[in-house]
Amino acid sequence: MAKLIEKIKDKRAPEPETPARHDIPVVHPAPEQGLTSAQVRERTDAGWTNAPVDPPGKTVKQIVLSNIFTYFNMLFFLLALCVIAVQQWLNLTFMGVIIVNTAIGIVQELRSKSCTDISSVEYGILETDGTLNVILFPAERPATAGQLGISTSDSGYPSIVINDGRVIDTNLRKLGLDRNWLSAELKRQGRGSEKDIFLMTVNQSREVYISVKEAVQ
Q1: Rg of the chain over all Cα atoms, to the nearest angstrom
Q2: Separation between Cα atoms, residue 126 and residue 12, nearest integer Å
């Protein structure tokens, strides 16, 4: 039983086998011609191929199995078999709690990655720090602006200009702003003194976020 538990506990997808690569001369063929058959064969034999690499994660099936076949669950399953053997059916009620907790653990792991539908998950990657990252099926992944052909502008990373009522002049200067602009912006936003502001950020596009202190609200 112990060997079975160790075998199925935290089961991961097998590591993809990658061929050993050997150094070969670099060539620069003409784009319209490309590599010759001999050059392609040389690179293939040396391990320089474009073979797809499977993600080092777990499928949904493996995620479910790794949550079900844990060390403690196997102990509870063994205890349940003992209870069934002596036909003490009322003592099996603890299995309901085990089943519910297991289901909650699976759903919470996926939901923590903004995934509420397990059927949309292609892989679940268990990182070395214990966190779970999910990879959705291609049809379930959100479309990007590039895929939709929409041009976007980079608004830059927001900088903190007021932190707990204190103006950070260094960040204002980095944005090409000064206290005159800050006072005018606070007035435009219907705010009073900077002392009333808990947090204020500004990005390169002059987009402003303001959070006032609770006492002011």
Answers
A1: 29
A2: 8
**Coil, helix or strand at residue 172:** helix
- Whole-model pTM over 0.70: no
Rounded-to-integer distance, Cα 47 and Cα 1, Å:
42
| Coil vs helix vs strand at 20 | coil
Task: Tell me whether residue 110 is exposed, middle or buried, using C-beta atoms within 10 angstroms of its C-beta: 0 to 12, 13 to 18, 19 or more.
Answer: buried
Contact by Cβ (8 Å): 113, 134: yes
Place of tokens 């390169």: 204
| pLDDT tens for each residue of 101-145 | 888 777 766 666 566 566 777 777 666 655 667 777 877 777 777
Return d(Cα 54, Cα 52) in angstroms, integer. 7
> Which amino acid is it at 157?
Y
SS3 43: helix
Helix (H, G, I), strand (E, B) or coil at 162: strand
CA distance 182 to 197: 12
Instruction: Give the angle subtended at the CA of 184 by the CAs of 180 and 190, to the nearest 5°.
Output: 150
Question: Tokens standing for 196?
Answer: 């009333």
H/E stretch holding 159 reads strand 159-163
- Which of 216, 54, 206 minimizes the C-alpha distance to 135? 54
